[in-house]
């Protein structure tokens, strides 16, 4: 089967984690490919978060954000993606004192030129605390007319349980935003329960849900999909070995699964590669791959083309 021609959406890709080494070199010619390669190679989840922060710090002007948006959209289209939701690390921008409105203006202007619909998820960062999350949610609410469809929460899950942010999630929901926090990536099922109790419509990763049969049943019965990013989980050490990844067991238990990339060049992957891994390492049949692609369209928050 030609995976490229499969109609599919990307629902979990971080703009700032999508920057190819060659693009980073264009943005900062003082860097070298060796240095970038070393940064895109880390030992564990915390090492990854440090590299992710380093990439963010290279992005300084609205033109940088425009460039990486253009490159990401081109790359998605080349893989047969017909709709995408892009996570923007607004929590990091606020922490850096960047002008979020100016940066997002550049991002949204690029997205408006795209032949496929692009929507945005504004991510707060758990370890940056409550005020940062409130400011991120307020900006997400304000910028809905420019394509923001959801509020998310990333960063170090072990340092910021979702329940801390309960009121921020409620506010975001009242403002008409959907909720798509990361949970169950490095922390256990209790973290996914907390995200579900906060009103999450989708869960970023959620792979450790497999440890709790009641949670698995809840996700299945309430049609709460997991945004699974297999290569990400192997690269960050969230799972030790590829063969141990629970994607097949979650799928077999009836949990809705969507395949995504998270931070593709930082995890040495592409969306097509994630479908290949599902096929080659986890035995997903052509019909099942079509079903996964169907899920990516079904669980989108915005308008999927007909
Ligand atoms: N930000 C970018 N990628 C992330 C991940 N996999 N987990 C948490 N925060 C992130
Ligand atoms: Zn992510």
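^ Assign residues to that structure.
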């Amino acid at each position: 089967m030609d995976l490229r021609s499969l109609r599919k959406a990307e629902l979990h890709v971080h703009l700032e984690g999508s920057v190819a080494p060659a693009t980073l070199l264009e943005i900062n010619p003082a860097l070298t490919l060796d240095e970038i390669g070393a940064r895109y190679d880390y030992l564990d989840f915390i090492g990854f978060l440090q590299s992710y922060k380093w990439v963010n710090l290279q992005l300084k002007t609205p033109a940088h954000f425009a460039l990486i948006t253009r490159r990401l959209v081109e790359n998605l289209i080349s893989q047969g993606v017909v709709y995408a939701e892009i996570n923007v690390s607004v929590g990091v921008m606020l922490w850096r004192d960047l002008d979020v409105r100016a940066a997002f203006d550049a991002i949204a202007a690029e997205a408006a030129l795209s032949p496929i619909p692009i929507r945005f998820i504004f991510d707060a960062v758990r370890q940056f605390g409550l005020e940062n999350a409130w400011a991120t949610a307020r900006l997400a609410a304000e910028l809905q007319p420019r394509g923001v469809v959801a509020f998310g929460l990333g960063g170090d899950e072990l340092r910021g349980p979702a329940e801390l942010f309960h009121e921020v999630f409620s506010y975001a929901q009242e403002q008409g935003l959907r909720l798509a926090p990361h949970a169950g990536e490095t922390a256990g099922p209790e973290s996914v329960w907390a995200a579900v109790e906060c009103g999450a419509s989708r869960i970023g990763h959620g792979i450790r849900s497999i440890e709790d049969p009641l949670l698995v049943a809840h996700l299945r019965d309430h049609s709460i999909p997991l945004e699974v990013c297999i290569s990400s989980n192997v690269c960050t050490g969230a799972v030790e070995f590829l063969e141990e990844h629970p994607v097949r067991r979650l799928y077999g238990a009836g949990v809705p699964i969507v395949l995504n990339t998270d931070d593709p060049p930082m995890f040495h992957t592409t969306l097509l590669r994630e479908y290949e891994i599902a096929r080659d390492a986890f035995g997903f049949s052509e019909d099942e791959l079509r079903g996964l692609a169907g899920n990516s369209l079904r669980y989108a928050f915005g308008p999927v083309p007909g």
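The beta strands are 8-14, 81-88, 118-125, 148-154, 178-179, 182-183, 203-205, 226-228, 257-259.
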